[in-house]
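Example record

The entry below shows one chain as it appears in the dataset: sequence first, then structure tokens.
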Amino acid sequence: MKKKQTLLLLEDVHGLGRKGEVVQAKPGYFRNFLLPQQMALRAGPQTLRMQDRLQKEREEKARVDRQESEKIKEQLVSITLQTKVKTDPHGKMYGSLTVLEILSLLEQQGIVLEKQAVRITKPIKTLGTHRIPLALKEEVITSVKVILDPEDEEVKLALARQAEEKAALASESPQEEPSV
């Protein structure tokens, strides 16, 4: 079994570390991915001298990223994303709302995020209003509201009628009194 190599990261690497950090990685990962992408160097006496400079650059980038993320968070508070989806006559969605579709809706509002920022565990398959959690850069957490409406207006009206009927039935049904 090969030992892990000690590396100095030249860029942030998701799942491994941040720019300027000294980390351990498998030789194959270093040789086949990190080195060709110029994301890391073998940590030696000369490369370790670079570490202080790289960490200062990383701190500056982190400060800028946090400011950008806070601005995006403020924008997202006032935004409601709305989209129409195909449904059957009973209001069941064909397909689902995926991460890529959420990113596309955000881009239409002028907000560009990375795929990793959208934190849904599974695609959304129901109509209505949903809160989508987002993790922006530098661990800024927020969410955005997405409304899924049926594409067909007749289905939308039928679902609204069903909701009204359920509400009416719930208000008309007598409340059971506790037995004494």
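Notes for this example: The longest strand covers residues 140-150. Helices lie at 27-34, 45-77, 99-108, 153-172.
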